[in-house]
Amino acid sequence: MKSEELKSGIYWVGAIDWAIRDFHGYETPRGTSYNNYLIDDKEPTLLDAVHHDFVHISIDNISRIISPEKIKHIIINHIENDHASGVEKILEIVPEANIYITERGKKGLNRFIDLSKYKVNIVKSGDKLKIGQRTLLFIETPMMHWPDSMFTYIQEEKVLISQDAFGQHIASIERFDDEFAKNNSMEDLEDAVIDYYANILMPYGSVIKGKVEEIKKLGIKINMIAPDHGVIWRSHIDKVLNLYSSMVDAKAQLSNVIVYDTMWHSTEQMVFPIAKGLEDEGVPVKIIKLRSTPKSVVIKEIWKARGVIIGSPTLNNGLFPSVAELLTYLKGLRLKNRLFGAFGSYGWSGEAVKEMYDVAKAMKLETFEPGIKVLYKPSEEDLAKCYEFGKAFGKALKEYHAKI
Ligand code: FEO
Question: For the whole model, what pTM was predicted?
Fold first, then answer.
């Protein structure tokens, strides 16, 4: 995919990764892109690099605009490998370029590249760099989502280079939000934003909220947000900012998701009466079989719903492995403001239900107890209990949702 001009003299020079399906364990069924940007000003400036496997594409894209040897400044907004692992290749072309990076960024990147060979400038929030007609303003965004992270704001064109924030894991022919919405749908794009937030940024919601407030106080106007993944926002900026606000506040629908795995279908048989009980209480329910659904999709669906009920058989006196993996992932993402329930079948010991509640309590989720567990195979009486559990959970969920 060739370079594209975003505004006069400002170009996307990134690469599309159509093939990636596993992004450090996060399933990416639609691939992703590694976005970086070139400003063709008096002192040509590159904002971010790309994954090292794709840096030749980015260099080729830069070559369509200027000779890469002309780059004077390299801004590194984020040192994670998908963006910074291509920097060294670019520095081979322009070893004399000035690097601008946060203090923490330098410390981290130095573990990957020997920075002592290069001209490194430490920047902090409020620092500016004049590159000709344009001025770059740096805004540190620590823990959004790494300690080193920062935004760069191009003052004259009011473009915010936002690294991972506002990004999406989408490989697409469209570079802009309106193009993507036209050829696909706005709902599809919003879904990709939620997917990305839920799986990457959720633990840092309060940091994001504080940073958005700080940006508002700086009084800067934004008419383009250019993230390091996915499409660039030029037409739906308010929409994505509002979507982020609602995500940061952990807003959720009055709905429930039941996520389960099963060994010999006993836990699976418990799912449907529980769902029916919830539905009879007027609560919409989504059912997800863990083993046949990408984990990133499960997380996104859990994020959308106010209630989450997880089912796991007991295997070897503990959780079923796929459920244990999901709970570990969910705990790291620090989900909050959700009502949690658990169920499952067992053969002789039946620890899984308790273990799931233990994780939920460690996450400080509201729990609905007791959960429900069934020996070997649910009887008609057990299935009736599952239905009553679903109904009672649905009632509690409505009350909980009303007071959140
Ligand atoms: Fe896209 Fe945090 O790297």
Answer: 0.89
